[in-house]
Amino acid sequence: MKIGLIDVGGGMRGTFAVGILDFCMENNINFDCCIGVSAGSTNLISFLSKQKGRNYRYYFDYAFRKEYSGINCWLKNRNFLNLDYIYGTLANSDGEDPIDYKTLIENPAEFIVVAEESVSGKTKYFTKKDIKQDNYKVLSASCNIPVINRPVEIDGVTYFDGGFADPLPIQKALDEGCDKVVIILTRLIDVPRKPTRDNFFAKFLGIKYPNAAARLSDRARQYNESLEYAKKLQEEGKVLILAPKDVYGLDTLTRDKDSMMKLYEDGKKAAEVIPDWINKVKNEKIDIK
Fold first, then answer.
1. Residue 215 and residue 210: Cα distance in Å, rounded?
2. How many DSSP H helices and E strands does the chain contain?
3. Is 175:123 a contact under the CB 8 Å cutoff?
């Protein structure tokens, strides 16, 4: 029985996922394959390196620093999000809050990070093999929001946010051989994603990156269809979807500690169903065809 975990990201709404992952660490709940999209990839790297509290510090402390994001970052480097600071200065071995790289690599779980090639618009799935000590560029690539940030370059290829390429990678989890999958959403489950904002930003993105812009315009459709498929699989007992009942006014870049804390606590509460669900599915017989 191979059990997967998907964290779809969602910027500051990711505190919901952090609550879930902290619950899992507190209760020694592990997964065989973890797939992170955008901020979901950064949540999962702390989970896989078994550093409880690290994600919490990123959301509730570092995200409020002027070095993290903002107009000053934009004026200095043409990047609203200072990814070099977030995934370099803070995360490197000599940084303030380093990733436990040794534990990450020794963790037997697979780790897949979703990004988008900026020129072709194709989906890129990075793996643990693409992550080196003090080189966490794959996280920067997955979290790199176009228009407000310049593309991130890795080995001569530039990348944008993975949420524009595969916003809910349920099919990827199945392709990787997962029999059961836990999906962490950061949007309300019964409210379809609308393309209005994506279409607006795609007009600007399309000037230089037409293929990436086309994927951005198609994100809402792809997300909604993937979610409907996931709901169907949940009815069949193959998927467990955890989604907030309220996002308390939070958007991708909204920084409001009170709302973020509410989502964090909601995540810990929502995670309470995971142990029984995992125990149940582990006792199921896999139908080998």
1. 9
2. 13, 8
3. no
At 77 the pLDDT is 81
Q: Which of 114, 113, 197, 119 is nearest to 151 (CA)?
A: 119
Contact 56, 18 (CB under 8 A): yes
- Residue-wise pLDDT for 36-47, tens only, equals 999 999 999 999
Task: Report the Cα 99 to chain-centroid distance in Å.
Answer: 17
Q: Given this model, what pLDDT does residue 288 score?
A: 39
Q: Which of 7, 6, 25 is nearest to 100 (CA)?
A: 25
For the purposes of burial, counting CB atoms within 10 Å of the CB of 94, is it exposed (0-12), middle (13-18) or buried (19 or more)?
A: exposed
Q: Which residues of 108-125 are buried (b: 16+ CB within 10 A; e: fewer)?
A: ebbbbbbbbbbbebebbb
Output the pLDDT for position 289.
35
